[in-house]
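Exercise 7. Given the encoded structure of a 365-residue chain, write a plausible sequence.
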């Protein structure tokens, strides 16, 4: 038990050290990106710093598998150089014992990442997008889903509009039972529009069977609506931009994803991308365990055997390859080429089995 706690403690501090290094690098690189994107004299340097820290959690969260495998490599290289693994073997125990506690710790880190860090990343990502959009186009466009349907907001130089629709099709190009409130540039309401259907084209909204009520001052509320068989309303929105507003599953907490997936299905959108992401997040702890096993398989040898650099290189390359395969399976799952469960769970499970086989072969022949 003492040896397990010892190895777990060393692995924990190694994780924190590498995480701190990546945190500093992420902050510096992203700060350069924000300085390039926004005018400091207009926005203010402290605002840029705030945007940088809002975006940092998302980048670090994506780098978590890399951080785990680097921490594992550093841990076992250090244990091999201090001959601590030799002592473990001399005590009559297999050196694989040293892998158990880091593997369990990686599992706990994965669980904490999914249940605690994931909601934090989602919240900071949404806040970053909100502030970034406000700085770039005056709060330009937004989209939200609720039990009442779909809410959109589009902005422009001539004013903005709030749009509500009961449902839409899967590619967000056609909306049913649309209601639009247009506002002037100074913020006052201008008109209310209702339409049976609306199709989003290059030149804007193509409304069918539209009724328009003027909301200008001095106009009576009882004024009859103007009827249009077809009506075009300019818009800078596109189906791709609408889907992108809620198309990133990472911007939604894993706790809220099941309900959001249900709302997508009810609104007529395809929820496959979000479903794949949910299962991939649930499989994250298993994948982090695989990263520990891969790192240990190549670096548990004693340094007197030589070729330590090559072993480290192979460990990192295999880790990157497994990460690439996992992302590739995610794309196949999102496109419907393979089942959702296969896309999310097969790569981590196969990675664990592959790494465990390598570890047993390296250690026990």
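Solution.
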């Amino acid at each position: 038990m003492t040896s397990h706690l010892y190895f777990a403690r060393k692995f924990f501090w190694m994780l924190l050290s590498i995480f701190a290094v990546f945190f500093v690098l992420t902050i510096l690189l992203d700060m350069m990106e924000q300085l390039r994107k926004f005018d400091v004299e207009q926005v203010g340097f402290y605002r840029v710093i705030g945007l940088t820290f809002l975006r940092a959690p998302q980048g670090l969260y994506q780098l978590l598998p890399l951080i785990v495998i680097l921490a594992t490599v550093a841990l076992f290289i250090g244990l091999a150089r201090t001959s601590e693994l030799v002592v473990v073997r001399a005590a009559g125990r297999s050196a694989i014992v040293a892998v158990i506690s880091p593997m369990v710790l990686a599992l706990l880190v994965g669980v904490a990442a999914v249940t605690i860090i994931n909601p934090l990343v989602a919240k900071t990502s949404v806040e970053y997008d909100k502030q970034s959009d406000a700085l770039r186009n005056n709060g330009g466009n937004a989209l939200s889903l609720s039990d009442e349907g779909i809410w959109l907001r589009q902005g422009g130089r001539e004013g903005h509009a709030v749009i509500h629709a009961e449902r839409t099709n899967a590619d967000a190009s056609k909306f049913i039972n649309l209601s639009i409130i247009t506002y002037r540039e100074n913020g006052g309401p201008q008109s209310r529009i209702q339409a049976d259907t609306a199709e989003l084209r290059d030149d804007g909204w193509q409304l069918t069977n539209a009724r328009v009520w003027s909301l200008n001052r001095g106009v009576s509320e009882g004024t009859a609506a103007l009827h249009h068989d077809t009506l075009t309303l300019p818009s800078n929105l596109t189906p791709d931009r609408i889907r992108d507003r809620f198309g990133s599953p990472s911007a939604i907490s894993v706790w809220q994803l099941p309900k959001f997936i249900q709302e997508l299905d009810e609104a007529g959108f395809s929820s496959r991308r979000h479903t794949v992401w949910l299962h991939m997040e649930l499989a994250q702890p298993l994948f982090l365990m695989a990263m520990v096993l891969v790192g240990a398989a190549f670096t548990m040898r004693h340094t007197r055997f030589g070729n330590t650099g090559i072993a480290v290189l192979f460990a990192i390359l295999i880790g990157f390859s497994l990460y690439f395969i996992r992302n590739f399976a995610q794309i196949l799952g999102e496109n419907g080429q393979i089942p959702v469960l296969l896309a999310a769970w097969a790569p981590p499970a196969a990675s664990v089995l592959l790494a465990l086989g390598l570890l047993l072969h390296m250690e026990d022949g």
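Remark. Residues 2-136+266-364 form one domain. Students should compare their own answers with the one above.
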